[in-house]
Design a protein that fits this description.
By secondary structure, the chain is mostly helical. The chain has one domain. It has 10 helices and 4 strands. Strands 1-2 form a two-stranded antiparallel sheet. Strands 3-4 form a two-stranded antiparallel ribbon. Helix 5 packs across helix 6, helix 6 runs antiparallel to helix 9 and helix 9 crosses helix 10.
Length: 268
């Protein structure tokens, strides 16, 4: 069996196992949606000023929760489930079968990307129906999809990299959450960071991949929003390819670390 065929076959098994745990599947999709409803109910009545433009907070949170959904599916979930599988000896047994090692990990990444794509679609449709948020079309839609693909792959690579420092399954939730939750706050995912955000917070957020990813997603999501200028209408949130480059560099770093130090056997 070729490697692509093995990836597809293993993806089917992973997908079946995911949906056969309805409680886990339900909360995987309900969690970001619940955050969207709660944050917009508490903070969504006003505007946040971004790049000199007043943006409805409800629209802001639609884009932010779409980015959070991708990070949750491709970083948090992959890091934790891979660590659990390693400590239960599943990875060790799989490593001794004819299934190519890369096929198994690729199927996990592919499944995380599919879940992330579903979460993004749910956020956009829910935001459109409930909060009248815009929907990207044309070139901004292409930029949005490209950002999703690079971001999903990069966070998946970082997820596999972080497993190399997790000693056991019990330590997975605190370590994974400790590496991502502070960045979610510092990057404006949970709390809007407008033009008046502290400079140190902006600098720290720009170093790590969460904020550039969220801003690239927002630029694609709001790419059709125009503002008047002296030279005619212009994009309110122009797409910055530098953000995508930062995310990709972090993804390459994660891939290098995972390739060098990933372990198939339980840690002693």
């Amino acid at each position: 069996m070729s490697t692509p065929a093995a990836v597809v076959r293993q993806f089917r098994f992973t997908n079946k196992a995911f949906w056969r745990n309805p409680a886990s599947a339900f909360f995987t999709f309900a969690f970001p949606l619940m955050f969207l409803v709660i944050f917009t109910a508490l903070l969504g009545g006003g505007n946040v000023r971004l790049e000199g433009v007043d943006l409805k907070q409800s629209t802001y949170f639609v884009g932010a929760m779409a980015a959070f959904g991708v990070i949750s599916a491709c970083y948090t979930n992959i890091a934790m489930t891979t660590t659990f599988a390693r400590d239960q000896g599943i990875l060790k047994r799989l490593h001794g079968t004819p299934l190519p090692a890369g096929a198994y990990l690729s199927s996990r990444v592919l499944h995380g990307m599919v879940v992330g794509a579903l979460l993004v679609a749910i956020m956009l449709v829910f935001g459109r129906l409930v909060y009248d948020s815009p929907f990207p079309t044309g070139l901004p839609l292409i930029e949005f999809i490209l950002t999703f693909l690079i971001g999903a792959l990069s966070f998946a690579a970082l997820a596999l990299a972080i497993t190399t420092v997790i000693p056991n399954a019990d330590a997975a939730p605190p370590i994974v959450n400790a590496t991502i939750l502070p960045l979610l706050f510092l990057s404006g995912i949970f709390i809007p960071l407008g033009d008046e955000a502290p400079q140190w917070m902006v600098v720290v957020g720009n170093i790590f991949p969460v904020k550039p990813f969220a801003e690239a997603m927002r630029a694609g999501f709001l790419g059709n929003v125009m503002v008047p200028t002296l030279h005619g209408p212009a994009q309110a949130f122009p797409f910055d390819w530098w953000d995508l480059l930062i995310v990709a560099v972090w993804g390459m770093f994660g891939l290098i670390v995972a390739t060098r130090f990933f372990s198939w056997e339980p840690r002693k």
